């Protein structure tokens, strides 16, 4: 980095340290001050985005943006405030348990993600509906594919934009094979393993028929579960779902024709639909990332360092899980 960038980095670090000091020193000064400068109890804040005439309840809007994967929710100075799995699960649970919340709208913008993570969100949605009797609507943004549709399937109503990319119903597992490339450079690999399939999907050897059979069985198992979720959520037969779930993508308009969504419209339209269905003009509350002083400095540092390709690449290398996993994911 240049001298100016180093100086900027040092200055930003000093500001973060100062912010932490202020946050600690004033932790007892009162809840209003803490709300302005510190982190909230949950890690997110509630903000009224639309004031309703009926003060007896509220509608909560939750946002799911980015790939659905559990990265530990660790907050780093490099963090771009992307999807945080544990925080999102707790938001659904918090809204469902709040007796003043009359309905939940989940705004979905995702190509999908991990099979396990998608299933965990699905379970939280079912819990909110069945245990707390909270209606849940899905508002699809530009993309709600694969795992994004998996979590939408049990909702009481799914609303998509005509231009939404959805579908991609299915399961995928990918790896790379660098054996031939390594051979060209004279690189050899020494693998000592306890069983024939211990290095299954290794990047350093060709996949065998036995490997493929084992992995296909895993894919088929997860695919069957995906089909079941859609069948139950959309009240369709499994044969109907399998005809649609061949991995292709659909526009929102096409999805409406295929009964994969219920209505076409925007997030505002979805809010209006829920108000009409509930029969009351409730206020609309949005759960959003906390904007405490420490977080603001963290975000500033993230922006400062984003332009450095080496640091960004190192961060990705250190945090990305390299092992192949089952995914409900649309890949271009």
From TrEMBL:
Pfam families: Peptidase_S49. Residues 1-29 form the signal peptide. The keyword Signal applies. Gene3D superfamilies: 2-enoyl-CoA Hydratase, Chain A, domain 1. The keyword Cell division does not apply. Residues 131-278 form the Peptidase S49 domain. Keywords: Hydrolase, Protease, Serine protease, Signal. InterPro entries: ClpP/crotonase-like_dom_sf, Pept_S49_SppA, Peptidase_S49, S49_SppA_C. Belongs to the peptidase S49 family. This is Signal peptide peptidase SppA.
């Amino acid at each position: 980095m240049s001298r100016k960038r180093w100086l900027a980095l040092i200055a930003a670090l000093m500001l973060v340290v100062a912010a932490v000091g202020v946050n600690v020193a004033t932790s007892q000064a009162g809840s209003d001050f803490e709300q302005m400068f510190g982190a909230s109890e949950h890690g997110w804040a509630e903000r009224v985005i639309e004031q309703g005439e009926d003060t007896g309840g509220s509608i909560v809007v939750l946002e799911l943006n980015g790939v659905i994967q559990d990265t530990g929710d660790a907050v780093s100075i490099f963090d771009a405030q992307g999807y945080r799995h544990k925080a999102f699960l707790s938001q659904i649970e918090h809204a469902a348990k709040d007796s003043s919340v009359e309905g939940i709208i989940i705004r979905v913008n995702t190509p999908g993600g991990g099979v396990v993570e998608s299933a965990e969100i699905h379970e939280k949605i079912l819990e909110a509906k069945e245990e707390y009797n909270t209606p849940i609507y899905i508002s699809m943004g530009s993309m709600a594919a694969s795992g994004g549709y998996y979590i939408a399937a049990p909702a009481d109503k799914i609303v998509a934009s005509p231009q939404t990319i959805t579908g991609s119903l299915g399961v995928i597992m990918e790896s790379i094979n660098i054996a031939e490339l390594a051979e060209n450079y004279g690189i050899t690999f020494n693998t000592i393993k306890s069983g024939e399939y211990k290095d299954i999907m290794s990047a350093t050897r060709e996949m065998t028929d036995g490997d493929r059979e084992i992995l296909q069985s895993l894919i088929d198992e997860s695919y069957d579960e995906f089909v079941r979720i859609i069948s139950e959520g959309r009240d369709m037969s499994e044969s109907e779902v399998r005809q649609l779930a061949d991995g292709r993508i659909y526009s929102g308009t096409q999805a409406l024709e295929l009964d994969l969504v219920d209505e076409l419209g925007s997030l505002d339209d979805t809010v209006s639909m829920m108000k009409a269905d509930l029969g009351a003009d409730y206020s609309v509350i949005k759960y959003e990332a906390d904007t405490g002083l420490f977080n603001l400095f963290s975000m500033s540092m993230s922006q400062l360092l984003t332009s450095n390709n080496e640091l960004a690449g190192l961060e990705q290398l250190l945090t990305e899980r390299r092992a192949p996993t089952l995914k409900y994911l649309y890949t271009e």
